Amino acid sequence: MRRCLSLLAPTLMITLFACGPSSSGDDTGDDDDDPSGPDAGRPDARPPVDYPDGGPAARCEKIDLLFVVDNSGSMGEEQTNLATNFPAFIEVIAESGLDYRVAVTSTAVDYTYNMTIPGIGNLPTTIDGGDNGAMLQRCDMARRWIEPGDPDPAATFACAAALGVNGSADEMPLGAMRRAFEARVADGTNAGFRRPDALLGIVILTDENDCSYEQSVTLQFTETLCSSQMEPVSNYVGFLDQFTGDRGRWATAVIAGPGPSDCTSDFGSADYAQRLDEFVTMTGTNAVFSSICEGDLTVGLADALALFSEACDDFPPID
C-alpha cells in the first residue's frame, strides 16, 4: 500500500512517497523493499524489513513529537519560518490518522565549568536560566503538549515555537532532549507525555554544533567550553534505545548546518553541526539530516515527515 504525504507551503508543494510494505498482495513492479531496486547501494537506503512471521508489522497509530528549537541570538528568522511551515506539517500528520502529541523545548541547558587561570587557579562558572528539557507550556496551552482536539493546534504551535533569542549561546540540543525524557520526567515536569506504543519523534533545529556534556568539566585557559570534553554522542543514542526499548521505536530529524564547512542562506550563517551529523549517522535508517541553509524549512520538515512515516510503517510490535 503506497502512502503519500503532501507538504504544502505558500510557494511550494512537495509530494512525498513514504512506502510501507504492501498489505494488498498486489504486484505493481515497484517493490520498495527489493534490494536490487533503484535505491540499492544508496548509503541512506532503508534495508528490507525481516518480519518474524513473514508478514508486515502493524503500522503504529500514535506519534509523540518533541521539537528541540535553538533559542540563541541568531535564530529569530528560523523560528519564524518554522512557525510559518508548521500548519502544513501538522495537517499532514492529522490527515494520516495518527494520534499525535507535539511538544517544544529549547536548546538552553544550565551548566557549570571550572576555568583554570594561570596564577589564580580554578574559577567556577555557572550559567543558568535554561529550560533544561522542560516542555514549554505557553500560549494558553492546556498542557505541556498539543494533541488532537485542541483549539487550532497549528496556531498554538506557531506561538509556542517562537521561543525568542535570549537563550544560551552554548547550544545543547542533545542534552536538552535527554533531560526532557529523564530528569524532567523524573521530577514530574514532562510526566504523561510519552506513550510506550507511540513512535517517538525528535526534531532538532539549530544553526550551531551541539555542545552537550553531562558532568562538570575543567577547562584550561586557552580552551572553550564547546571545543573539548563533551559527552560522547553514542551516549545519547544509547539513552534513546534504552528509553524506548528498541531502535525502531524512535526516529530523529535534524535540521542544521550540513558541513563539511559552515554554510550561509537567507537565514544567515550556520556552523557545521558535526556532533548532530554523527548522531544521525549512529542512529541509522531512523534518522535524517537536512540543511538549515536551504533558506526555507519546508525541505527539512518534508524530510522529517517522510522519515516518520517510514519509521511508523516499520514500528516493532509491542510485547
Short description:
With 319 residues, this protein is α/β, with parallel strands linked by helices.
Can you give keywords for this protein?
Rossmann fold, single chain, three-stranded mixed beta sheet, 319 residues, 23% strand, five-stranded parallel beta sheet, 25% helix, globular
Structure description:
With 319 residues, this protein is of the alpha/beta class. It has a domain at 61-110 and 128-214 and 230-313: Rossmann fold (3-Layer(aba) Sandwich), CATH 3.40.50. The chain contains 7 helices and 12 strands. The chain has helices at 76-95, 153-160, 173-181, 183-186, 233-244, 274-283, 298-313; strands spanning 2-9, 12-19, 62-69, 99-106, 111-117, 121-127, 199-205, 217-219, 250-256, 263-265, 268-270, 287-291. The strands form 4 sheets. It has a 5-stranded parallel beta sheet, with helices on both faces. A 3-stranded mixed beta sheet has the order 6-5-8, with no helix packed on it. Strands 1-2 form a two-stranded antiparallel sheet. Helix 5 packs across helix 6. The longest helix has 20 residues, at 76-95. Residues 1-57 have low confidence and may be disordered.
Query: What pattern of helices and strands is seen along the backbone?
Result: EEEHEEEHHHEEHEEEHEH
Structural classification: alpha/beta
* Assembly annotation: single chain
* Integer-rounded radius of gyration: 20 Å
Q: Estimate what percentage of residues fall within beta strands.
A: 15-25%
Distance linking N and C termini:
25 Å
